[in-house]
Design goal:
The complex is a heterodimer of chains A (507) and B (301). Chain A contains 8 helices and 37 strands. Chain A is mostly beta strands and 507 residues long. Chain B has 301 residues and is an alpha/beta fold.
Amino acid sequence: MTAIAPLREIGELPRSPLPAPADGGLRESDFRLINDSGFGDGLNNYAHSMAWFEGKLYVGTTRGTWAMTKVNTPVPDLKPWPTECPDDVYQVDRRAEIWCYVPETDTWTRVYQAAYVKGRTKPVVPRYIGYRGMTIFQGPTDAKPCLYVSTWAPQQAEPPDILRSEDGVTFGTVPRPPWDVTVRSFRTLQVFKGRVHTSPTGSSGAAGKSQECVASEAAVYCTDDMQTARWQPASEDSFGDPTNLTVFEMAEFNGHLYAGTVNAAQGFQLWKTDGASGPPYQWKRVLQHGAWRGPFNEVCGSLCVFKGALYVGTGIVNGGYHRAEKIGPAAPELLRVWPDDSWDLLMGYSRLTPDGLKVPLSGYSGGFDNIFNGYVWRMGVHGDWLYAGTMSWANVIPYLHVEMWPEEMLVLMQRWGKEEMVRRYGGCSLYRSRDGVRWEPVTRSGFGNKYNWGIRNIVSTQHGLFIGTANPFGPTVAIRRDKRWVYVDNPRGGCEVFLGGEPDAGK
Amino acid sequence: MIVSAPLLVLSAPGAEAARLAAMLGRHPAAYGLPELNLHLAPTVEGLLSVFQVTQGNAQDGLLRVVAELYCGGQGDADIVAAREWLKRRADWSSMELLDELGERIAPKLPVLAESSLAWRLLEVEAWLARVPDARVLQVVRHPRTQCAELASRLQGPLFVPPDYKDYGVDPAVIDPQLAWYRINRNIGQALGALPAAQRRQVQAEDLFAAPEDTLRALCGWLGLPFGEAALYRMMHAEDGPYARIGSTAAPYGMELEFHEAPQFSGRLRPRLGLEGPAEWRRDGKALAAEVVTLARSYGYR
């Protein structure tokens, strides 16, 4: 008799999915695939932004992410590389696209594609390689509410600016905030009290030094008019704490603007302001030290308001292992903050904190009991339910050296082997809850496609719930065949979009 | 609906719930079941699937009881037969299986302790919703003694489930008070929805200090006749069919400390105060205020 096995008995045990309730929550079978393989181009890896605008769904893509990862340092130690990529990332067509879906006709149209422009040293480079955020806003000089899109520019191009469209067909540009040229991308465009707020998200100091989730500055900027670009600082840089590397995510809740940071040294912080004076506003810190978990809660990755509380999804950049800072791998948590700044741990790891004893009220440990989940990437409310989606790096397992893995992963590896681990854990998860405490899985397999490694966007509409995925395993993927690795076309590589709801919903 | 609504005994690990359940299960009008873990999946097929991937012994109790009741014993061959018996009923719901077991032992009162059920509030609630007539006994124990014993046990193995650690410090340290609080809180919340007559709470220390009085009171609540013969049987839980470590194919089925010493010894560490450092921690931190408050609500000082 060993002492290990019985002790596992008294901890959490794996569960199989609960039966679906008959009270309106969406099940996996309620979703249908309305776009596969990156709109027919597997290089459209991420459905990186989504918005509902004038009765249509708009999806902004980010392209060629594995090609980009390959040229950054430190490079992940993967063998072989998961997709076939040239050594020069500029050989990949990374011109980011915006697609439009019309529910009534069930049709997609590409409404925008980034131009090729002259690079700083290269003759032709894409103007934008991704679109990480969208919002609908009407400023004083806008004749009507417009679709605004935040962009991601490659190092060879001019810094990123903002796309603007009145009709969803014609796109122009408006200026970005007065950031340093090292700022290469931004994502959140958060409307609050008549102003749009944003912050830099990605940066590049030099070739090969790009960081998609860590910016070179950490201030919130705002403007009441996007066209005239009267951008003003809304916060002190890093909220006065230099360990805050980036202001990553924002949301409006209870009459306040909330902003969550990336903080590799201590763990993320969450700040709020009532915006009563300024800009710049007076801010108050609500959470610190990654809600007292430390750097394993490095990032405030997602925010969502639901039934009187602000839900906070955490993570570690680079998919759960911050290569440059050597943080992780570790699974994310889900928290909720109440208007009085008190907070609950919903999913994650128990701890004694200066704010009191915290246990996961849902009963799930980190990553919804899945250590391969690197972030809670997106949340959304549809009907009476909150949906939370993850990013999972399990599908990278076949390409990883396992010597560096945590002990519990090695135990599983020895028990099952790599292929079985991918089969069991591959693909992102989507969970749902009606109260934030009782969670049930919608899918734990990327809607049956293990290459969907992230739930990247969730948009609720009268036509149903749209889910956009991140799927970088296209257009080719490395597979093992006859004891050697080969690259093959991947028909399920590239971002996908699912629509969940009753067949006649919205009609 | 099962023939005789079961008695479900719940506690945080280390509160001697398995022992008390086994003792009550030895009453002539009751039948003590091992842990069935039916909450792990909604169907028998799902249960078998979970059992296949789990690293522990979650399946042992169910296999042992099926082997005992339907396959003629608990030897290795009987356990194999029990697994086949379950496979043939893969399309059953888990609660249909509980129904079947209840009919098999009827008219005796089924008694079972489920040590992994209350980690998740949703699952306790779901279990109780499916067995609405069940009576539930919550066994509580002083957090200082319960956690100290559990911490001592957890020092040995290489792998300690994260549920027993405090992640507020780096590296995380073993601190069972977090599990004590989490599970007891879940049980209290789930039982709050039950009619008062269907739920009861007992201190483990009372069982050890005054076993006859405690068992008499519980039998009275359950409507079981109490007398010398019944008391004798209940005081000898080690004679139950699942008390001892079983065959290699399914050795356990109940909490390990009960399997290791199924005889009732009458010894339990005395109640200690709630104040002062948590002895299993090296940083001198006291029991958390939330733990102290919950323990006080159970009558501990």
